[in-house]
Write a structure and sequence with these properties.
With 223 residues, this protein is mostly helical. The protein has one domain (6-220): Heme Oxygenase, Chain A (Up-down Bundle), CATH 1.20.910.10. The radius of gyration is 17 Å and the shape is globular. The chain has helices at residues 6-13, 17-22, 25-32, 37-64, 68-95, 100-105, 110-125, 128-151, 159-166, 168-188, 198-220. Bound molecules: ligand VIB. Ligand VIB is lined by residues 47, 50-51, 54, 77, 81, 85, 138-139, 142, 213, 216. Pathway: Cofactor biosynthesis; thiamine diphosphate biosynthesis.
Amino acid sequence: MSYGNTFPLWRAAAGDHWPAYTRHAFVQGLADGSLPRDAFMHYLVQDYIFLIHFSRAWALAVSKADTLDEMRHCAATVHALLNQEMGLHVKLCGEAGIAEADLIAAEERPENLAYTRYVLDIGHRGDFLDLLAALAPCVLGYGEIGARLAASDHAQTYAEWIGTYGSRDYQDLCHEVAALIDASVARRIGPEPQTSPRWGLVCERFTMATRLEVGFWDMGMTP
Ligand SMILES: Cc1ncc(C[n+]2csc(CCO)c2C)c(N)n1
Protein backbone atom coordinates (compact mmCIF):
# COMPACT_ATOMS: atom_id res chain seq x y z
CA MET A 1 0.00 0.00 0.00
CA SER A 2 1.27 3.43 -0.84
CA TYR A 3 0.23 6.98 -1.55
CA GLY A 4 0.92 8.55 -4.95
CA ASN A 5 4.19 8.57 -6.92
CA THR A 6 6.41 11.01 -5.06
CA PHE A 7 5.94 9.76 -1.53
CA PRO A 8 7.49 6.28 -2.17
CA LEU A 9 10.58 8.04 -3.58
CA TRP A 10 10.88 10.37 -0.59
CA ARG A 11 10.32 7.46 1.78
CA ALA A 12 13.10 5.45 0.10
CA ALA A 13 15.39 8.50 0.31
CA ALA A 14 14.80 8.64 4.08
CA GLY A 15 16.36 5.15 4.37
CA ASP A 16 16.35 3.60 7.84
CA HIS A 17 14.81 6.71 9.37
CA TRP A 18 11.45 5.75 7.88
CA PRO A 19 11.03 2.37 9.63
CA ALA A 20 12.58 3.92 12.77
CA TYR A 21 9.52 6.21 12.71
CA THR A 22 6.71 3.93 11.54
CA ARG A 23 7.88 0.86 13.48
CA HIS A 24 8.97 2.68 16.61
CA ALA A 25 8.54 0.96 20.01
CA PHE A 26 5.82 3.52 20.82
CA VAL A 27 3.85 2.32 17.78
CA GLN A 28 4.37 -1.30 18.76
CA GLY A 29 3.07 -0.42 22.23
CA LEU A 30 -0.07 1.12 20.69
CA ALA A 31 -0.61 -2.06 18.66
CA ASP A 32 -0.20 -4.61 21.44
CA GLY A 33 -1.57 -2.37 24.21
CA SER A 34 1.68 -2.51 26.21
CA LEU A 35 2.30 1.26 26.02
CA PRO A 36 1.89 2.63 29.57
CA ARG A 37 -1.18 4.85 29.92
CA ASP A 38 0.84 7.74 31.36
CA ALA A 39 3.11 7.71 28.30
CA PHE A 40 0.07 7.84 26.02
CA MET A 41 -1.51 10.72 27.96
CA HIS A 42 1.77 12.62 27.96
CA TYR A 43 2.01 12.08 24.19
CA LEU A 44 -1.56 13.32 23.67
CA VAL A 45 -0.96 16.49 25.69
CA GLN A 46 2.20 17.25 23.70
CA ASP A 47 0.43 16.35 20.47
CA TYR A 48 -2.30 18.88 21.23
CA ILE A 49 0.37 21.60 21.29
CA PHE A 50 1.92 20.05 18.19
CA LEU A 51 -1.37 20.38 16.32
CA ILE A 52 -1.64 24.08 17.16
CA HIS A 53 1.70 24.76 15.47
CA PHE A 54 0.93 22.33 12.68
CA SER A 55 -2.22 24.30 11.95
CA ARG A 56 -0.03 27.39 11.65
CA ALA A 57 2.19 25.53 9.16
CA TRP A 58 -0.81 24.52 7.00
CA ALA A 59 -2.04 28.12 7.21
CA LEU A 60 1.37 29.22 5.93
CA ALA A 61 0.88 26.74 3.07
CA VAL A 62 -2.33 28.58 2.14
CA SER A 63 -0.31 31.74 1.62
CA LYS A 64 2.54 29.92 -0.16
CA ALA A 65 0.20 28.19 -2.61
CA ASP A 66 0.16 29.07 -6.32
CA THR A 67 -3.24 27.72 -7.30
CA LEU A 68 -6.74 27.97 -5.89
CA ASP A 69 -6.86 24.19 -5.70
CA GLU A 70 -3.78 24.18 -3.45
CA MET A 71 -5.23 26.98 -1.33
CA ARG A 72 -8.52 25.15 -0.89
CA HIS A 73 -6.84 21.93 0.15
CA CYS A 74 -4.59 23.61 2.71
CA ALA A 75 -7.38 25.79 4.10
CA ALA A 76 -9.53 22.67 4.53
CA THR A 77 -6.67 21.02 6.44
CA VAL A 78 -6.38 24.01 8.76
CA HIS A 79 -10.12 23.77 9.41
CA ALA A 80 -10.02 19.99 9.98
CA LEU A 81 -7.07 20.29 12.37
CA LEU A 82 -8.51 23.09 14.48
CA ASN A 83 -12.12 21.94 14.52
CA GLN A 84 -11.93 18.14 14.29
CA GLU A 85 -8.58 16.49 14.85
CA MET A 86 -7.84 18.41 18.06
CA GLY A 87 -11.25 17.23 19.29
CA LEU A 88 -9.95 13.65 19.60
CA HIS A 89 -7.26 14.90 21.96
CA VAL A 90 -9.71 16.96 24.00
CA LYS A 91 -12.07 13.97 24.27
CA LEU A 92 -9.42 11.38 25.23
CA CYS A 93 -7.75 13.77 27.69
CA GLY A 94 -11.13 14.75 29.16
CA GLU A 95 -11.91 11.07 29.82
CA ALA A 96 -8.61 10.89 31.71
CA GLY A 97 -9.45 13.98 33.80
CA ILE A 98 -7.26 16.43 31.86
CA ALA A 99 -9.21 19.60 31.01
CA GLU A 100 -8.67 21.60 27.81
CA ALA A 101 -7.28 24.48 29.91
CA ASP A 102 -4.56 22.08 31.14
CA LEU A 103 -3.73 21.18 27.54
CA ILE A 104 -3.33 24.81 26.56
CA ALA A 105 -1.23 25.51 29.66
CA ALA A 106 1.05 22.45 29.22
CA GLU A 107 4.77 23.07 28.87
CA GLU A 108 6.04 22.28 25.39
CA ARG A 109 8.84 19.71 25.29
CA PRO A 110 11.95 20.67 23.26
CA GLU A 111 11.54 17.68 20.89
CA ASN A 112 8.05 18.93 20.10
CA LEU A 113 9.20 22.51 19.60
CA ALA A 114 12.10 21.38 17.37
CA TYR A 115 9.76 19.54 15.01
CA THR A 116 7.07 22.16 14.46
CA ARG A 117 9.44 25.11 14.30
CA TYR A 118 11.57 23.22 11.79
CA VAL A 119 8.53 22.80 9.57
CA LEU A 120 7.57 26.47 9.97
CA ASP A 121 11.13 27.58 9.22
CA ILE A 122 11.27 25.49 6.05
CA GLY A 123 7.94 26.98 5.05
CA HIS A 124 9.13 30.52 5.64
CA ARG A 125 12.34 30.22 3.68
CA GLY A 126 11.24 27.76 1.01
CA ASP A 127 8.36 27.50 -1.41
CA PHE A 128 5.15 25.49 -1.27
CA LEU A 129 6.89 22.24 -2.26
CA ASP A 130 9.57 22.58 0.45
CA LEU A 131 6.82 23.04 2.98
CA LEU A 132 4.85 20.03 1.70
CA ALA A 133 7.98 17.86 1.91
CA ALA A 134 8.35 18.84 5.59
CA LEU A 135 4.63 18.24 6.25
CA ALA A 136 4.41 14.90 4.42
CA PRO A 137 5.95 12.49 6.97
CA CYS A 138 3.38 13.54 9.54
CA VAL A 139 0.33 12.96 7.38
CA LEU A 140 1.46 9.94 5.38
CA GLY A 141 3.45 8.28 8.16
CA TYR A 142 0.37 8.21 10.39
CA GLY A 143 -1.56 6.91 7.39
CA GLU A 144 0.84 4.00 6.99
CA ILE A 145 0.88 3.28 10.71
CA GLY A 146 -2.91 3.49 11.00
CA ALA A 147 -3.54 1.23 8.00
CA ARG A 148 -1.03 -1.36 9.22
CA LEU A 149 -2.28 -1.43 12.80
CA ALA A 150 -5.96 -1.44 11.83
CA ALA A 151 -5.36 -4.45 9.56
CA SER A 152 -3.42 -6.29 12.29
CA ASP A 153 -4.63 -8.23 15.28
CA HIS A 154 -4.23 -5.24 17.62
CA ALA A 155 -5.22 -4.86 21.29
CA GLN A 156 -8.34 -2.83 22.23
CA THR A 157 -6.42 -0.51 24.60
CA TYR A 158 -5.64 2.14 21.97
CA ALA A 159 -8.28 1.10 19.45
CA GLU A 160 -9.72 4.63 19.19
CA TRP A 161 -6.36 6.08 18.15
CA ILE A 162 -5.79 3.22 15.68
CA GLY A 163 -9.35 3.58 14.36
CA THR A 164 -8.85 7.29 13.69
CA TYR A 165 -5.79 6.88 11.48
CA GLY A 166 -6.81 3.53 10.00
CA SER A 167 -10.25 4.85 9.01
CA ARG A 168 -11.43 5.15 5.44
CA ASP A 169 -11.75 8.93 5.91
CA TYR A 170 -8.17 9.31 7.03
CA GLN A 171 -6.85 7.00 4.28
CA ASP A 172 -8.79 9.06 1.70
CA LEU A 173 -7.16 12.21 3.08
CA CYS A 174 -3.72 10.59 2.66
CA HIS A 175 -4.45 9.86 -1.00
CA GLU A 176 -5.56 13.47 -1.49
CA VAL A 177 -2.39 14.82 0.11
CA ALA A 178 -0.31 12.47 -2.04
CA ALA A 179 -2.07 13.80 -5.15
CA LEU A 180 -1.42 17.36 -3.98
CA ILE A 181 2.28 16.50 -3.57
CA ASP A 182 2.47 14.85 -7.02
CA ALA A 183 0.82 17.86 -8.69
CA SER A 184 3.08 20.26 -6.79
CA VAL A 185 6.20 18.35 -7.90
CA ALA A 186 5.04 18.34 -11.54
CA ARG A 187 4.23 22.04 -11.39
CA ARG A 188 7.40 23.23 -9.67
CA ILE A 189 10.08 20.74 -10.77
CA GLY A 190 8.73 19.08 -13.91
CA PRO A 191 8.17 15.60 -15.30
CA GLU A 192 11.55 14.16 -14.26
CA PRO A 193 11.97 15.53 -10.76
CA GLN A 194 14.75 13.18 -9.73
CA THR A 195 17.11 14.69 -12.29
CA SER A 196 16.60 18.21 -10.92
CA PRO A 197 19.14 19.88 -8.62
CA ARG A 198 16.20 20.66 -6.32
CA TRP A 199 15.36 17.03 -5.73
CA GLY A 200 18.04 16.29 -3.12
CA LEU A 201 17.05 19.32 -1.07
CA VAL A 202 13.38 18.40 -1.08
CA CYS A 203 14.28 14.86 0.03
CA GLU A 204 16.33 16.39 2.85
CA ARG A 205 13.26 18.24 4.15
CA PHE A 206 11.28 15.01 4.17
CA THR A 207 14.07 13.06 5.88
CA MET A 208 14.61 15.67 8.60
CA ALA A 209 10.89 15.77 9.40
CA THR A 210 10.94 11.95 9.58
CA ARG A 211 13.82 12.08 12.07
CA LEU A 212 11.87 14.62 14.11
CA GLU A 213 8.91 12.21 14.17
CA VAL A 214 11.25 9.56 15.66
CA GLY A 215 12.26 12.15 18.27
CA PHE A 216 8.59 12.79 19.01
CA TRP A 217 7.93 9.09 19.73
CA ASP A 218 11.09 8.95 21.88
CA MET A 219 9.75 11.93 23.81
CA GLY A 220 6.39 10.17 24.16
CA MET A 221 8.08 7.27 25.93
CA THR A 222 9.66 9.52 28.56
CA PRO A 223 6.79 11.31 30.33
C1 LIG B 1 3.69 14.07 16.08
C2 LIG B 1 2.54 13.87 15.15
N1 LIG B 1 2.78 13.52 13.88
C3 LIG B 1 1.76 13.34 13.04
C4 LIG B 1 0.45 13.48 13.47
C5 LIG B 1 -0.71 13.26 12.54
N2 LIG B 1 -1.23 14.49 12.05
C6 LIG B 1 -0.87 15.68 12.46
S1 LIG B 1 -1.61 16.94 11.58
C7 LIG B 1 -2.48 15.85 10.69
C8 LIG B 1 -3.48 16.26 9.65
C9 LIG B 1 -2.92 16.92 8.48
O1 LIG B 1 -1.70 17.53 8.63
C10 LIG B 1 -2.14 14.57 11.05
C11 LIG B 1 -2.73 13.38 10.46
C12 LIG B 1 0.25 13.85 14.80
N3 LIG B 1 -1.00 14.04 15.27
N4 LIG B 1 1.30 14.03 15.62
